[in-house]
Amino acid sequence: MNDVQKTGSDSAERPGAKTSARRADLRARLVAAGRAAVAEGGLQNLKARDLAAAAGCAVGAIYNVFDDLDDLILRIGADTLARLEQGLAAPPGPAPEPAEELLRLACGYFSFARADKALWRALFEHRLAGGRPAPAWYLEDQSRLFALVEAPLARLLPDEPASSRALLARTLFSAVHGVVSLGLEEKLAPMPEAILEAELERLVRAFAAGLTLLPPG
Amino acid sequence: MNDVQKTGSDSAERPGAKTSARRADLRARLVAAGRAAVAEGGLQNLKARDLAAAAGCAVGAIYNVFDDLDDLILRIGADTLARLEQGLAAPPGPAPEPAEELLRLACGYFSFARADKALWRALFEHRLAGGRPAPAWYLEDQSRLFALVEAPLARLLPDEPASSRALLARTLFSAVHGVVSLGLEEKLAPMPEAILEAELERLVRAFAAGLTLLPPG
DNA sequence: GAGAAAAATGAACGACGTTCAAAAAACCGG
DNA sequence: CCGGTTTTTTGAACGTCGTTCATTTTTCTC
């Protein structure tokens, strides 16, 4: 409903430029305040009145630039996804062995989750009201994560069809996510992080080794 | 409001028997009503006033038999865990190949999650207020699930130390959970269930095959 | 600069989990 | 059985939440 892309430089000529700039600025301040609130106390700590106070606006102003808090939470999630993608970016240099690269991604994912626990949690904890599906722009942000896994998989399994590899990338991502997710879960018996990382390595190495034995699917 | 039938025979012997029986009955009715509410509309659909209406008691009565709604949710979760454990019980007959048994458990887990999606989700969606740790009785209910995985793992890796196997059981459970969890996640691009099950099989088979190649850890 | 249009405001609304003074029920010695 | 005491149950009330909308303030147009 509210796509404001106008971040033009001149304010006097274009009608509504000042307003759009203020709206964009308010959006940014609200996302920043929301991210800080979630980072501090989880999704439960995201309160409309606190947000308004932190961003220096009225509570009603939130609803001028976002449909509702769910909308704001999705933007925070997109931010988190972008930072995660950035944190998993491949370092320069020659491409390592596929299994080593997969392991690097898995450990990077764990590292990110550990460092930004509350924000990372919010990615999966949050449910859209009424079971609505996530907007397309959010799904695209996610698919970039799976793509990071797909590249080393292609080198590991050159005979695998591309469609099958895409599924496999999501599966491997999901498996690593599961280990990290339940590993950091406070409702389960706690796990030392060093052990968790060793288990992650065992999962990725065993899975990668086993994959090369299975027939292509 | 509530008619209490006086049996007359047991009221004289046990002091407070009638009271504790009513409390136990109320607990059961509240858990049943809560489970129905969660099954219908997720954790968000669990409202104190609705619960009281469904169980035929005052809102305050909930707090006579539960600390708070978190407490009630944990009981619902324990119920769900018990039904899951029951659904994963090994069928009679000779023990199959370890990998096949692991696959059966994974598919059983997926089947349960699919059939009781909202209740299964509630197991992981729910966070205790203030980041409190889960009570011991709840952790014990969970550990029984990991134990189901440990048995076939012991046959698959007879040279693995028991402590390492316990970790591995939790890791494999977590990996399968991750695939099921993100597979059924509505905030991700949807996955057909048949494909999801095939991916689950690929994960378990590759992991089991790869494990036998890795050195014991 | 004045009048029209658009945006920002914050008090008000309904719903939520939880509490607690009061009412009801259970208990117990005579 | 009864009257006084204790325990349990009750539901109106409280504080907080996300969200709305009549009012005020700002921006735009001529």
From TrEMBL, chains A, B:
Residues 47-66 bind DNA. Pfam families: TetR_C_33 (PF13305), TetR_N (PF00440). One of its GO terms (molecular function) is DNA-binding transcription factor activity. InterPro entries: Homeodomain-like_sf, HTH-type_TetR-like_transc_reg, HTH_TetR, MT1864/Rv1816-like_C, Tet_transcr_reg_TetR-rel_C_sf. Residues 1-10 have a biased composition (Polar residues). The keyword DNA-binding applies. Coiled coil: none annotated. PROSITE patterns: HTH_TETR_2. Keywords: DNA-binding, Transcription, Transcription regulation. Residues 24-84 form the HTH tetR-type domain. Residues 1-23 are annotated as: Disordered. Residues 11-23 have a biased composition (Basic and acidic residues). This is TetR family transcriptional regulator.
